[in-house]
Amino acid sequence: MLRQLSKFGVVMTLLCVSPMLASAQDDQYTREPTEAQLEMNSKAIEAINQKDYAKAIKLFQASIALGELNITYLNMARTYHRMGECSKAKRIYRLTRDVRYKVAEPTPDQINEALNKYESQLYKDCTNGELTVICEPGKMDLYLNGSGPIACPSSDDPLRLKEGEYIIRGEMEGYETSEIKVNVARVDPTTVALTLAKQAPKEVVTNTPPKETVIIKSNDNDAALEEVRQRLRDQEKEKQAKAERARLAEQERQRQLDEQRVLRRALREKEIELERRNTRLRRISWGVASSFVVAGAIWDSCIFGGGWNGHLYNQYGTSACAHTYNDQFEGKDLIPVGFYFAGVSTLIISKIVQNVRRKNFELDYKALPEPSNFDDL
To answer: Exposed, middle or buried, 76 (CB in 10 Å: 0-12/13-18/19+)?
Structure first.
């Protein structure tokens, strides 16, 4: 095994850790890499030297599937670092610190020292950030600083942009165009939401009264003519103002409905997750409760100690079952009661936890504003 660790350490020197003096450590969670992991790591280093980073990432992921090791996470993060995938590199650097199992060589102190170095270097090397846009409706066309159109970038496929300020414009037929400004930070992912409001319906005019015809005689003065003109201008302004108020009111209504759609969709996902968690808790609690009941029954009847002789003739086969067949009350006779009580308590506590979760969800649901028109949702 010393030969394996030495080989693993040499491989890691090529990518991450330089040789240092080993310090004392608690080896409670030390795990030795397997032959398969060593081979995958070696192939991954060869792929990195050939700049085939995608292949190296797959090899590291396969190694982690066999067993988590801090050095494997560090290698994978360093590979993402070289690829320019800065957000992923930062996330996996953090996983390296939190992973439970560590290799003996390089030591955890050496790994942490390398992590400090690479994390500080990450912000120097990476000038790009990741941008995710939550679009509502989702089929809108996006324009980034006037260029486009492009599809809404999701968290699985974000836009990688240089650090700085950007203008995002959303367009879709039947909706009002909207623009937002966003500052993209380096390394850290940036998420924004863009919502388009539906266009107000065009006003349909029916039974339009005939336009007022004003006849100005040649002997009328200029003051009377100007008075008529001013009245006509005022009427036109009032008509335009009314149409603008109606358009803004409809736009605000659509914006509120769109916000409610987003909130209710998120709440529905939360409700599904709640049911999934409650189902998992219910299954676990029934399993634990059943185990307690079975343990109590075994102890109470001493099935494995007294056998058929104990049950048929009240004779125990081993001294461990004497308390069951001696017709006397002892403290041991209360042990199965404790098992039964623990089983029932498990089910009751599980039910209480499920009810509390549902109650909290109902409070979140009631906190939502009621839409003015449910048909629009």
So the answer is: buried
